[in-house]
Amino acid sequence: MANQEKKQNFLFYAALILLVFSVVIFSMNVIKVLKITGRATGTANLTIEGKTQINFTIDNIDWGSGCVDAGKPNATLNTAAGAGNAVINGNWTENTDGFRIENIGNQNVTLDLKTGKNAQQLLGGTDPDYEYNVTNYEANSCTPPAGFNLGTFYDVNTTNPGTRICDVFQFSDSNDVIRIDVKLVIPSDSKTGAIGDTFTVTATTI
Amino acid sequence: MVSNKTIWVMIIIAILLLGSSLLISTTSSNKEVNLDQNKAVESTTQKGNINLVINPPATKGVNENG
């Protein structure tokens, strides 16, 4: 009988300890939930929008008015040649800036370049040339595709979507500007009057 | 002397409380954070212009006949 009572008491105290323990745990959980009510089952959504944007920071090349020097077969206007050499055999105003394009978005992009006219359509005459040359104005801004070299003059391309000039045009602030230089060879028997053309650059997210 | 019934009631209550605690703990930690970056392919076009005026040469150039 004494043993039975001891056993009963042991079970009672064990059950009591278990009960107290469970009450403590339960209370702690309830307090925790009360403190974080409102975000216990909440969902945080954050959308970062990609922005694809480029800008011609220099968007105009204007050589003014001029003519091919008398007795010369042609004149050469080259924005990459530097002061003193940017106009050869002519009296146009030198331009040594070229175009400048900056990636002002927040994504790397590809760049395609086309023009509205080819050399014959723009200048006419005998053996005209109309070429462009892409260089990094800020180091490593443009990674060209295979077969296209930075710093080399190429004939313009009027077909859509143009020529891929950069496989990667970076957006990071210190590496996001390129320069496009233009070279014209104007024959002495070219068209006369005001002429012009448009360079169209298309940026596409990678 | 405490009865068996009392002990079993205490044990059952303890088990229920522990079970509830487990349930609360599980549901309250079910947090979700979504971070989406909109990577839709986009395209944009910008234009630059070249301009000049070509005057006839003062005398005929070598490409001109006659």
Task: Jot down its keywords.
heterodimer, A: 206 residues, alpha+beta, Immunoglobulin-like, 2 domains, 7-stranded antiparallel beta sheet, 4-stranded antiparallel beta sheet, 2 helices, B: 66 residues, 1 helix, 2 strands, 30% strand
Descriptive notes:
- The complex is a heterodimer of chains A (206) and B (66).
- Chain A has 206 residues and is α+β, with helices and mostly antiparallel strands.
- Chain A folds into two domains: 39 residues; 152 residues, Immunoglobulin-like, CATH 2.60.40.
- Helix content of chain A is 18%, strand content 40%.
- In chain A, the strands form two sheets. In chain A, strands 2, 4, 5, 6, 8, 10 and 12 form a seven-stranded antiparallel beta sheet that branches.
- Chain A is rod-shaped.
- The mean pLDDT of chain A is 91.
- In chain B, 38% of the residues lie in helices and 30% in strands.
- Chain B is an alpha+beta fold.
- The mean pLDDT of chain B is 76.
- Chain B is built from one helix and two strands.
- Chains A and B meet through helix 1, strand 1, strand 2, strand 3 and strand 12 of A and helix 1, strand 1 and strand 2 of B.
The number of domains of chain A:
2
Number of strands of chain B: 2
Secondary-structure element pattern of chain A, one letter each: HEEEEEEEHEEEEEE
Fraction of helical residues of chain B: 25-40%
Largest interface, chains and sizes? A-B, 85 and 53 residues
Number of strands of chain A: 13
Structure, briefly:
The complex is a heterodimer of chains A (206) and B (66). With 206 residues, chain A is α+β, with helices and mostly antiparallel strands. Chain A is built from two helices and 13 strands; from the N terminus they run H-E-E-E-E-E-E-E-H-E-E-E-E-E-E.
List the helices and strands and how they pair.
The complex is a heterodimer of chains A (206) and B (66).
Chain A: H1 2-35, E1 43-49, E2 54-58, E3 60-67, E4 74-78, E5 87-88, E6 99-103, E7 109-115, H2 119-122, E8 129-136, E9 142-143, E10 154-155, E11 163-169, E12 177-187, E13 193-205
Antiparallel strand pairs in A: 2-6, 4-5, 4-12, 6-12, 7-11, 7-13, 8-10, 8-12, 9-11
Chain B: H1 4-28, E1 32-38, E2 43-55
